[in-house]
Design brief:
Five copies of one chain form a homopentamer.
Chain A: E1 2-10, E2 14-15, E3 23-29, E4 34-39, E5 48-53, H1 55-58, E6 70-75
Chain lengths: 90, 90, 90, 90, 90
């Protein structure tokens, strides 16, 4: 999995039917890579999240074959230090 | 998923039988990476699209085992700001 | 999928039994990355081809569980402009 | 698989239900890439570990469909030289 | 698939049960990337090998769900020129 920060939300009115309804958040990894992940948790901009990728992301959806390859699976608790070694809980 | 812009279309007259008929669009990501994705939506050059990759792309096709590893799953609505932070809807 | 150019052929006399017999071509992508793909079409050096990767490549083989993760699925027609924007059909 | 070194642990109190309980360790590869892997072995910071990625990581869990795409599958024995060629067992 | 050269062997005494017994070789690709692959062929250091990655590597094992994401599927014959264009058979 990868650690990333939520940077925004995207909307897609014109899309394939099997796309699950819900939040599609744009996230940025520590190396600056950006990707878009389905958000089952309702995360907010700036939140540190844990992302899983590939077919395991699609397997989360039990009611359909979802064309999803990135999924937010958790919000990272504050006391987990990031690269700079500082725990983000002041 | 990744955000990309449609840059063109490719044709492949000589191909394996299980390749679905339809549009094969060339797209460019924000980092300049180019890939080719199957387009079930009829997108146009310059359009911002959402791409899913890997076996989840192939799973979209229920009538065959499609050798497809990249699929356009949606067109990104204009008011979604891209990296420059500007919403593209003036 | 990715666009690549055929640069050569590889031979592997000592290999696992489930490897399908046929052509294993070395290809180079536009960014210079090289990989080896199974070729069901009989492509030639210099030919522009369309490659699919991952488990969807293996799924092409219906008679075995093939340990193949890259497959040539089509030859790209000449009038498809490459990065330089020139259509290769003079 | 890839070789990596354990650099820390992450906690995620707010997460999807199907996430297995257990250790989620942050690891760094030889090229400095960081990722987070599920740890079934109880590894310690500084330990050299072997990581598998993708759907094969999720397949380790037989009691659920786990949204896990990286798994520690072994601790690398000391006498295995790393890139610098030195065996780490003095 | 990718072309790589065997650079060494790794040992992992403390590991998950479903890891197949056999050789785990460290290999280096032409771009210097290093990874570890299961070796069903008994390859030697310096040997040029063909590697398949992802779930197709795990599918090679029919007796278990193997947490393997990289597999040596063949030894590349000498007369296959590498990037420098020289056939390695003098």
């Amino acid at each position: 999995m990868i650690r990333a920060t939520v940077t925004g939300k995207i909307w897609s009115s014109r899309r394939i039917e099997t796309m699950p309804t819900g939040g599609y958040l744009e996230v940025e990894t520590e190396t600056g890579t950006r990707l878009i992940a389905f958000d089952p948790l309702g995360c907010a901009p700036g939140e540190a999240v844990l992302i899983t990728q590939g077919s395991v992301a699609a397997a989360y959806f039990t009611d359909r074959t979802a064309a999803i390859d990135a999924l937010i699976i958790g919000s990272i608790d504050d006391e987990t230090p990031n690269k700079s070694g500082k725990g983000r809980k002041s």
